[in-house]
Design brief:
Shape of chain B: elongated
Number of domains of chain A: 2
Helix content of chain B: 25-40%
Strand order of the largest sheet of chain A: 3-4-2-1-5-6-7
Helix content of chain A: 25-40%
CATH superfamily of the largest domain in chain A: Succinyl-CoA synthetase domains
Distance between the termini of chain A: 18 Å
Oligomer: heterodimer
Distance between the termini of chain B: 36 Å
CATH topology of the largest domain in chain A: Rossmann fold
Number of strands of chain B: 18
Largest interface: A-B, 65 and 54 residues
Strand content of chain B: 25-35%
Largest sheet of chain B: 6 strands, antiparallel
Amino acid sequence: MSILVDENTRLLVQGITGKEGQFHTRQCVEYGTTVVAGVTPGKGGQHMDSIPVFNTVEQARRETDANVSMIFVPPAFAADAIMESVFAGIEVVVAITEGIPVLDMMKVYHVVKAGSSHLIGPNCPGIISPGKCKVGIMPGPIHREGIVGVVSRSGTLTYEVVDQLTKNGVGQSTCLGIGGDPVIGTNFIDALKLFEADPDTRGIVMVGEIGGSAEEDAAEFIVREVSKPVIGFVAGLTAPPGRRMGHAGAIISGSSGTAQAKIEAMEKAGITVVRNLGELGKTAAEVFSV
Amino acid sequence: MNIHEYQAKELFKKFDIPIPRGRVAFNLKEAKEIAEELAVLPVVVKAQIHAGGRGKGGGVKLAASLEEAAKVAGEILGMTLVTHQTGPEGKKVGKILIEEGLDIDKELYLGVVPDRATASLVFMASEAGGMDIEEVAASTPEKIIKQQVRPGEGLQPFQGRALAYGLNLEPEVVKQFIPVVAKLYNLFMKHDCSLVEINPLVITRDKKLVALDAKINFDDNALYRQQEIEDYRDLTEEEALEVEASKYNLNYIKLDGNIGNMVNGAGLAMATMDIIKLAGAEPANFLDVGGGASAEMVENGFRIILSDKNVRGVLINIFGGILRCDILARGVVEAANKVGIQVPVVIRMEGTNVEEGRRILDESGLALQVAADVWDAASKVATIAKSA
């Protein structure tokens, strides 16, 4: 098994006719994902390769039974695109877009939570259940089907982690990037709950970074609710305070949000925290005894 | 994005939040004119830099006469102000705010910040104004009153009342305080702020509520729809190399070490800085060239990194994935040749066609060391740092 996306995923791509949308849609199709529709307002009736394009998500869902959407819409219009998918009843909405204003996301967040959709991101690489389905911009071939769930706030750092896991014989059930923004649809705890409930996930790798308190909150949750072994990594030990380190959410404010505090909280919760990124794959192979 | 206190007060004025009378001066002549114009004593002279702790650093002074005002204005203008937020090198003061001095009875704190976990805005108010709010929160958390506001629903009138009555304000001050809360909320929403802070918000002896200080930060992601705010940007307050990098859409932050590094993706970039340190060297910067890492970005990245004269070696860490390493390698070689690199460079790359990419680097004739993995790369670059 896996979480959120699998062989039953019927993907819709919002912003499918843009450069990024086209490129990554093709990559997803190549990986084996069933892409059933695209949405670009004003381009309804056209096709991207052989995929039908619709003007609205509602129409696309009605005609193609799409149940997951992936969003490549530019930041100024992305909050609206997320809302459109939520109101159309799409089950899992994956927002790749980087740069959405935080006040827009605060409004979207409560709409999502009031409904039944699951939002991943924004500002994330997406989600992949290796061997089944890829909904995102991550490189497919570095993944390998297996028993470890990966959840991360980062993009390329997740690829680095997954690549090491695969090279050390540790396959993955599902890998998801939850995004580098301050306000995101799925947090560590949401992902941990899903991995804990998934019988085929036997262990979890959690990749955090400076800013906010999501790692500390997750550590507390793990003590209470997670029975599976967890390995952790936190980026940003050398990051200066008060500076936004690329991701909008990666900033140490005053004395809160430091990597050191996160690592301590995670270790206190019994998580195996890896200090040397180069040893993550090897440590995972030992902890998950594959 | 940060702005100066005088700019934040301009915004306060637009939103009808009471501020002391005063104006900004860029030279001594203007400062004297403003002090005379105010026609009250004492006057306050405040250094305008993008950093807190100005008072403790000697950047805020009271003057009891016009002569004294001219004297302290002369001292502060052009001084290098060192505070806990500027770093030891300090910041040169090029602007000063001249304001009327107020007869203060009480100092309050009022601020608005986003709360990530609840996706809402949090108003914080405290009777312990004038102090570092983080310290208040740590030592006497009961002195901070909070109200959570969801931007979709907006600020409710009862929330303003809850803050006002929570501060034990006198009735005539309550009447002034509640509208200030609403105006602060409007300002925050209208201009995509990421922080608004009035510390202190003072009550004068004649029971007037006035924002004595003003601090506003803005959400960089929203600047595309905040032209008016973007015009407030003061490039002299920013690190020159960072301004240069932003022209190329590069995310660069200068640090104090001597190992330059160039990475695709922010998380991996931070992790690369960390592993450089773990291997025994000090990172000279944070540089994210973006997930895609095009040849042009790499070339611009080289230029920025090498403009920092402390740099003794460079580590390039690109996890391409979809990106083809042969193309990336050609880009690196081309950029290295164009820029003329004088320091050793260690490259670690991963992705499609990685073997071909490594061959191109090996055969380039450049002094490039190709690393097998991220720890190998960090170790190689640490060796360079030690021999430098």
